[in-house]
Design goal:
- The chain is an alpha+beta fold.
- It has helices at 2-13, 22-47, and strands spanning 52-61, 65-67, 70-83, 89-103, 107-115.
- It has one domain: Nuclear Transport Factor 2, Chain: A.
- Strands 1, 2, 3, 4 and 5 form a five-stranded antiparallel β-sheet that branches.
- A hairpin with a 5-residue loop joins strand 3 (70-83) and strand 4 (89-103).
- Mean pLDDT is 86; it is low at 1-17.
Length: 116
Amino acid sequence: MKRVFALFLTLGLGSSALACTPAQSAQNVRAAAQATVSQRMNTAALVYGFMYSNVRHDVHIGTPTIRGQTATVRGTLNIRATERASGKAVQGSYPGTVTLNKVGTCGWRVTGYKQD
């Protein structure tokens, strides 16, 4: 019975559970960068909420470069808000590069950011 179960697990998991294709890796790099930037922007919006209202942002992530266990991806953060004191609309565009390290088989974790 143990052999049948082991064979079933091996066949059921297949090679995709053991390895990550380059396309999956690239997609996961982009998703990790997007999620981290968005999370940090949501936190920043709370902090700057006393100065700005209607804070909105969007993140555009480019094609990642993956070299072994490290990846970099360039992107642009666009921010729009309204100054509370003047009612004036403000906006900014901030290009930057995110660095990531591989975690596990197919995961990625952001380890740094540099504004370009």
